[in-house]
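Re-running the complex after MR caught last week's input typo. The corrected sequence lines follow. Everything else is unchanged.
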Amino acid sequence: SAPNKRRQQSRNRSAQPQDMPRNPNMSGYNSSDQKTACKKHELYVSFGQLGWQDWIIAPEGYAANYCAGECSFPLNAHMNATNHAIVQTLVHLMNPENVPKPCCAPTKLNAISVLYFDDNSNVILKKYKNMVVRACGCH
Amino acid sequence: SSALFDSSIEIHSGFIHRRLRTDEKREMQREILSILGLPHRPKPHLSSGKYNSAPLFMLDLYNTISNEEKNEVEGFLDQYKSIFTTQSPPLASLQDSAFLNDADMVMSFVNLVEYDREFSPRRRHHKEFKFNLSQIPEGEAVTASEFRIYKDCVSNAFKNETFLISIYQVVQEHKGRETGMFLLDTRTLWATEEGWLEFDITATSNLWVMSPRHNLGLQLSVETSNGNSINPKEAGLIGRDGPHDKQPFMVAFFKVTKVHIRTTR
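Corrected-run output:
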């Protein structure tokens, strides 16, 4: 059970890592919290720059994205935090040496389609599930 | 910037980024190929293959399902644009779109027959088509398959004529004896009709995927309304010597039956 003081603190922390606050003063997070909070980061995998344009017809690349940042207490301020993430945080607080914090990981993934030639110059159009991170959360 | 990391991201993410070493880049390429389910980087022979009908047809399907990513595609496909914009009407039919919705993978196959063979006098006008279906990834089942051939308008002696176009599966081949054939599909058309013709060869494709030794190809014949066999070229059917964007090809739609599990390392 958390002391009242801490509960009060957690109520003030209203920023969500997915959506940055429009007015920084409205957020309970300080600037370092914002930098390290679990959120989606952009990363573009370019088939063109990998030198694969001779066999991949489309797309040129895809916005793969990735999740990174800290999942620290209070998790309920974080969007998409699982019940397990809350439990994991509590156990981490009790035993920080042995139990890590919950992981910042994808909660929503999208598919992409890739059009490419094979060795015999046949063309393949294939759907790949779970290729693009749409949202991150704490697990 | 490296191949994988966009330099503009480096400033905002708060992570220290660096250029990948050659071996690291190669390792990442290997990993991405593994995600795509490929054992190695394909090396297609594309002297004129990029502008063939099959890639254009597949691009049509790709655009149908990738409207969201349209902006990305447009920049990359400048080389296709001039040809693709001249394609009217679109290569893919409504039926193809229906197959597409149900498919996990679509694959087009180029015709492997390079020279016409001598057939018996009765079948001297038959045209032969062969496709390699032996390298389908494990766990993929054919849900639909079509043989597609383009027909031009004929405005010569056959102007007011109708043609009966028949597609056969070759089931047996013997030296010096008549080839065993099984009729798959027929179509009756006016000589003046023009466009892509689609023949359903789903059952045959399934057989070829399961048993590649039974893949002896297809044969096509054309008859006039009074039963005379004619050369498909006279009926306006485009063969190997026609334009690249009207070459005959085969397309198959697949559904995954087994889940692909990546090997644990």
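None of the earlier attempt is carried over here. The first strand of chain A starts at residue 39 and ends at 41. Chain A touches chain B at residues 35-36, 41-46, 48-55, 57-62, 68, 112-128, 131 (CB under 8 Å).
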